[in-house]
Automatic annotation (TrEMBL):
It comes from the Bacteria. GTP binds at residues 18-25, 86-90, 140-143. This is Peptide chain release factor 3. SUPFAM superfamilies: EF-G C-terminal domain-like (SSF54980), P-loop containing nucleoside triphosphate hydrolases (SSF52540), Translation proteins (SSF50447). Increases the formation of ribosomal termination complexes and stimulates activities of RF-1 and RF-2. It binds guanine nucleotides and has strong preference for UGA stop codons. It may interact directly with the ribosome. The stimulation of RF-1 and RF-2 is significantly reduced by GTP and GDP, but not by GMP. GO terms for biological process: regulation of translational termination. Residues 9-278 form the Tr-type G domain. NCBIfam families: prfC (TIGR00503), PRK00741.1 (NF001964), small_GTP (TIGR00231).
Length: 530
């Protein structure tokens, strides 16, 4: 096998999705710890500082209210080269959070064992399903009181609509958390909390049939476990690698990220089960990652990393082959050849300039304002385009007006550029021109970012009037539909995007179903595609 193929084969590029506070940051840190990418010496306080450094490393951006970064952390573990894509959460949840998933080959879903499936997980999960990527579940915080594991399985299956296959099974929880049972090896690993969660735990493993189990986990827990194993073996889906790869079956693991329990086992299994870089569809067929010719697509644009220069960084996912600094590539959508100089890569805390990168990796390149989300880069004599990145449904809408009418031009330039970066989406009234602008965002923080940036970068003060709509739908079969004749509901509004695509806004979710019912033949979609 060539060196390039070997490099690609060992890559694993995945995103961790979760609802805020489920333990995504903690789990990421533990992965980095095992990979030796960070060194968490010290106490919990040290952990906090490290957490800050790792996941919130763009502190300057944050101070300015522009924390819209999904960073990538690369490290090596057990012969694999791992790229973790960090999906921004909390207040900076934005369209970038969704787009990050377009660059991943699989997803790890972290669920808080006491809470189960939560709102943000559902949203992110839908994007994974759309991409049909494998989804692995880590049920976290088993050292705390947790819900019944069968109930959690049911909830994942019913709410998310994916079948589950527990790889291990918890024995008790909270104060009575005894450990986990490995269904394949038929062994029990007892729970020991690592000191302050800093070090690897020294676990002990017992044969479930062994005589000493009763004394380790207690007679009652042992009996309960045997009953549950019987139930699981009878009722749970069997592990089936094909179904996992197609995203139809999620392997489930239980553990406690904070105390390091079950984290390394999870990582080991996960790396074996998940996929090396996946092929991607283009206008002319499928591009295999192992093709030696370089190709990549832009999935994220980060504005103004350096305010003095008003520059942007375009993040691209390498789809095939090897990237070398300074190489000449064809920017297909721009119709130009260019040299990618000074490519950057994120390595845990640091950003560094890289000389080479391979399919599966993410690099950031300087963007003088030429790239758009979804653009293709390939070797200079080629011309295909990767399948576009869909536009994700904003959930907050506002009418935006510039206060000084003389600054119309700057205003339009500002909102258009910010929209091109993918931070906001802009719409117009359905029947009028550009005079009224409606902005849609996935996370409300983006409104603040917009106001701030228009004022600071474009010198335009604006007034935002929030609108009550929360649901947007693209009309999939727009060619067949006369939009003005759609039988609407009283809370429905017709709008269009800058490419004149018609869209519908709704205040209530049930109105969406109502409008579909009233207009047979109308096909609505939660994702926008060009
Ligand atoms: P997030 O990135 O998904 O938002 O979650 P994060 O890792 O920041 O974890 C949220 C809180 O849950 C943190 O507590 C963290 O310590 C705690 N946590 C994570 N994993 C576990 C676990 O396995 N068991 C228990 N008991 N707690 C866990 P915090 O008090 O908000 O922050 P900190 O003071 O610990 O930094």
């Amino acid at each position: 096998m060539s060196n390039i193929a070997e490099e690609i084969k060992k890559r694993r590029t995945f995103a961790i999705i979760s609802h805020p506070d489920a333990g995504k940051t903690t789990l990421t840190e533990k992965f980095l710890l095992y990979g030796g990418a960070i060194n968490l010496a010290g106490t919990v306080k040290g952990r906090k500082a490290a957490k800050h450094a790792v996941s919130d490393w763009m502190e300057i951006e944050k101070e300015r209210g522009i924390s819209v970064t999904s960073s990538v952390m690369q490290f090596e573990y057990d012969g694999y080269c791992i790229n973790i894509l960090d999906t921004p959460g909390h207040q900076d949840f934005s369209e970038d959070t969704y787009r990050t998933l377009m660059a991943a080959d699989s997803a790890v879903m972290v669920i808080d064992g006491s809470k189960g499936v939560e709102a943000q997980t559902i949203k992110l999960f839908k994007v994974c399903v759309m991409r049909r990527i494998p989804i692995f579940t880590f049920i976290n915080k088993m050292d705390r009181e947790a819900r019944d594991p069968f109930e959690l399985m049911d909830e994942i299956e019913n709410v998310l609509g994916i079948r589950t296959c527990p790889i291990n099974w918890p024995i008790g929880c909270g104060k009575n958390f005894k450990g986990v049972y490995d269904r394949h090896d038929k062994t029990i690993t007892t729970f020991t909390a690592a000191m302050g969660g800093q070090k690897e735990v020294a676990t002990q493993t017992f044969d479930v049939e062994g005589a000493d189990v009763d004394s380790v986990i207690g007679v009652d827990y042992h009996q309960q476990l045997l009953d549950e194993i019987e139930l699981l073996d009878g009722a749970a889906d069997e592990f089936d690698m094909d179904r996992v790869s197609r995203g139809n079956l999620s392997p489930v693991f239980f553990g406690s990220a904070l105390t390091n329990f079950g984290v390394e086992t999870f990582l080991k299994h996960f790396l074996k089960m998940t996929t090396s870089p996946l092929p991607r569809r283009t206008t002319t067929g499928i591009i295999d990652p192992f093709e030696e010719k370089f190709s990549a697509f832009v999935f994220k644009i980060q504005a103004n990393m350096n305010k003095a220069h008003r520059d942007r960084i375009a993040f691209m996912r390498i789809v095939s082959g090897k990237f070398e600094a300074g190489m000449e590539v064809n920017h297909v959508q721009g119709g130009k050849k260019l040299r990618l100089t000074q490519p950057q890569q994120m390595m845990a805390q640091d950003r560094k300039i890289v000389d080479e990168a391979y399919a599966g990796d993410i690099i950031g390149v300087f963007d003088p304002g030429i790239f758009s989300i979804g653009d293709t880069l390939c070797l200079s004599n080629e011309k295909f385009q990767f399948e576009g990145i869909p536009t994700f449904a904003p959930e907050h809408f506002a009418r935006v007006r510039q206060i000084d009418t003389m600054k119309r031009k700057q205003f339009l330039k500002g909102v258009s550029q910010i929209a091109q970066e993918g931070a906001i989406q802009i719409f117009q009234e359905f029947n009028t021109g550009m005079e009224e602008i409606i902005v849609g965002v996935v996370g409300e923080l983006q409104f603040e970012v917009l106001t701030y940036r228009l004022e600071n970068e474009y010198n335009v003060e604006v007034k935002l009037e929030k609108l009550p709509y929360e649901y947007i739908r693209w009309i999939e079969n727009k060619e067949e539909i006369d939009v003005s004749r759609i039988q609407g509901t009283s809370d429905m509004k017709r709008i269009k995007d800058l490419k004149d695509n018609p869209l519908l806004l709704f205040v209530n979710s049930w109105s969406v179903g109502m409008v579909e019912e009233r207009n047979p033949g109308l096909k609505l979609s939660e994702f926008g595609r060009d």
